[in-house]
Specification:
two-stranded antiparallel sheet, LANC-like, LanC, Lanthionine synthetase C family protein
Length: about 400
């Protein structure tokens, strides 16, 4: 396969492999975030661009489907939906039969999970993050359904549920109403005495900005259900409540605890690292998408100004210590790239060359904390390489949707 057009990521000894491993770790074949389906996305993109071979794509597709897939899986990023996302993105006629089978499982699982979620709401119980979030929950499954069958009943059923999720509730023990996405769990989605009363999560990976981006994206594509506009507005107004200000721009905490909810004050004293998963890039992009859906010029300006302030604040950017999408520089580049395309001014676009250069030239020297580089989409070389390639292949054959639709960035 030809080297990365930008010249560094795939020259790294820990670069994306051309051949699947003969004995992959458990779960790796069906993990979009860290395993085979994510690597398949990169090889498919490069095959379409003429810098890779379809034979390589087929080897990875075979690896993804070689062992039984747990259709219930973990939402979009593990199991049937993860494999289906990668195969459907490849857009090759040889995968049609496999996709037909996978889609039938995914729609059945989506229906079961929607029913369970409505039953939980009817019991006046609070949700786990994995019920609704992007990585493991119904937002991620709906992301696949929205792009695969945008006007089908399965995606509308999830949108109905997400609308209901946004209504406030009054759970026992918290003393006041909280948003419907309040979870009794900690950040690992487990009950914990370290976080009594649970929390409300703002991150795009596990929090409410994932559903916000999904609802807004569907709205912009003409896929709507009753109450959807009000649901978008409710989430945005709640985010307004927790918007913080600094000397340069707005920012948001990654989560709100029960104590912070009672006092109305966030304890986080400054912006955290500007990561896709929990930081300003993911939150601001979701708010921009919402503003575009609602034609809200003031909110759009706030979101774009927040992202601009983030990328021009050297102290914030210095907190990014790896090249990955989830926690690192690639995620920042990706969010800015997508937001700049929709922005009212050229200010964000003007920052992209500097951000791209930083993301591309430093991966070789960086290593993850455990000392071993992984090829994964979220935390490894695949995501970094895909981000570096984004925008380089203008005019070449397009996939049915952008590869980063699974991250809710394109809108």
């Amino acid at each position: 396969m030809s080297p990365n057009p930008q010249g560094t990521v795939l020259d790294d000894p820990c670069a994306v492999p051309v051949d699947p491993p003969a004995d992959p770790p458990e779960g790796w074949c069906h993990s979009l975030g860290r395993g085979v389906p994510g690597v398949l996305l990169l090889h498919a993109a490069r095959a379409r661009a003429g810098t890779g071979a379809w034979e390589t794509v087929h080897r990875w597709a075979a690896a993804a489907t070689a062992t039984p897939i747990q259709e219930a899986g973990g939402g979009l990023f593990a199991g049937a939906a993860a494999v289906a996302y990668a195969l459907a993105h490849a857009n090759h006629p040889g995968y049609t039969a496999a996709l037909r089978i996978l889609d039938s499982h995914i729609t059945a699982v989506a229906a079961d999970r929607v029913r369970a979620a409505h039953d939980r709401i009817d019991r006046s119980e609070l949700p786990a993050l994995a019920e609704f979030d992007l990585i493991s929950g119904l937002t991620g499954i709906s992301c696949y359904l929205l792009h695969r069958d945008p006007h089908g009943e399965p995606v509308r059923a999830v949108l109905h549920y997400l609308v209901r999720l946004t209504h406030p509730v009054r759970p026992h023990g918290l003393g006041s109403a909280v948003p419907g996405w309040w979870t009794p769990h900690d950040l690992t989605d487990q009950p914990s005495p370290a976080m009594p009363g649970g929390h409300a999560n703002l991150g795009i990976a596990h929090g409410i900005t994932g559903p916000l981006a999904l609802l807004a994206t569907a709205h912009r594509r003409g896929v709507t259900v009753p109450g959807q506009t009000d649901a978008i507005d409710r989430i945005c107004r709640w985010l307004d409540t927790w918007q913080q200000s600094s000397s340069t721009t707005a920012w948001w905490p990654g989560h709100i605890t029960a104590d912070e909810h009672r006092t109305g004050r966030a304890r986080q004293d400054g912006p955290a690292r500007p990561s896709w998963c929990y930081g300003t890039p993911g939150i601001a992009r979701a708010l921009q998408l919402a503003a575009l859906a609602l034609d809200d010029h003031a909110r759009r300006r706030t979101a774009e100004d927040a992202l601009y302030g983030c990328v021009t604040d050297t102290r914030q950017v210095a907190q990014l210590t790896d090249p990955s999408i989830c926690h690192g520089r690639a995620g920042l580049v990706l969010a800015v790239n997508r937001a700049a395309a929709d922005a009212a001014t050229d200010a964000l676009a003007a920052q992209l060359p500097r951000l791209r250069s930083r993301a591309i030239t430093r991966p070789i020297t960086d290593r993850p904390p455990r000392g071993r580089c992984q090829p994964g989409l979220l935390d490894g070389a695949t995501g970094t390489a895909l981000t570096c390639d984004t925008g380089l292949h203008q005019g070449l054959p397009e996939a049915p949707w952008p590869w980063d639709a699974c991250l809710l960035m394109p809108g």
